[in-house]
Specification:
A hairpin with a 2-residue loop joins strand 1 and strand 2. The protein is of the alpha/beta class. The radius of gyration is 16 Å and the shape is elongated.
């Protein structure tokens, strides 16, 4: 975390920590994207389980991470998915795949653990919890 704080000071980006969460004020979406990439590259390593969220907000970040090809987590999973058949139109896994990030993980042999697997919601939640543990 000190490396990230030093990076923020170096870039003259105002920040603070609130309940263990780093909050940084950036002037533009592009600067925010670059900052997120730098933080993730500094903190995610071969001992990290990297969990992805869905929605529109992280989509451009995932695309940038796919292009940068600089992260090497131990494994990747999801913390947010819309329940339904695999690759359904509103699937966050589909969005992540479309950014190229899943291709990057596959190319590097980094295990990816999707959520939807064709079982009931309850079975899926229980099995996914066990898998990530």
């Amino acid at each position: 975390m000190e490396d990230v704080k030093n990076l923020l000071r170096e870039k003259n980006i105002l920040s603070h920590t609130n309940q263990g969460i780093l909050v940084a004020k950036v002037a533009s979406d592009q600067l925010g994207l670059q900052l997120a990439e730098m933080i993730l590259s500094a903190m995610v390593d071969t001992h990290t389980l990297f969990l992805l969220s869905g929605g529109r907000t992280p989509k451009s970040l995932y695309g940038s991470l796919a292009v940068a090809e600089s992260m090497q987590p131990a494994a990747v999973g999801m913390i947010d998915e819309r329940y339904g058949p695999k690759w359904h139109n509103a699937s966050n896994e589909l969005m992540i795949r479309e950014t190229g990030l899943l291709r990057y993980f596959e190319m590097r042999g980094i295990p990816f653990f999707p959520i939807n697997d064709g079982h009931t919601r309850e079975e899926t939640a229980e099995q996914y919890d066990e898998k990530l543990r």
